[in-house]
Amino acid sequence: MRPNVPLLAGTGLVVLGTLGYAVGVVAAYPGRSLAVAGVMVGIALLAVGGGRTGGDRS
Fold first, then answer.
1. CA-CA distances (angstroms) from residue 45 to 27, 49, 56?
2. Do 35 and 24 touch, CB atoms closer than 8 A?
3. N or C: which end of the chain has fewer CB within 10 A?
4. Which of 8, 10, 4 is nearest to 41 (CA)?
5. Which residues contact 21 (CB under 8 A, 6 or more apart)?
């Protein structure tokens, strides 16, 4: 069984982006706006990778 790469990448980006956003609320750091972009890209990857991974289409 192959891992669903877009699903795994999307999950990782959403988690890291959310953590980065939470840290950015507490303390300003350079590049914190990338956290929001990471969450958006992660959600898009979750939408793409959320389908079936294979098998019978009937």
1. 28, 6, 23
2. yes
3. C
4. 10
5. 32, 35, 36, 39
What is the value of pTM for the model shown? 0.78
Q: Which of 13, 44, 14, 17 is nearest to 31 (CA)?
A: 17
What letter does residue 8 receive in the DSSP assignment?
H
17 CB-contact burial (10 Å; exposed 0-12 / middle 13-18 / buried 19+):
buried
CA–CA dist 53, 1 (Å, integer): 9
Which value, to the nearest 10 degrees, does the dihedral of the CA atoms of residues 23, 24, 28, 30 take? 110
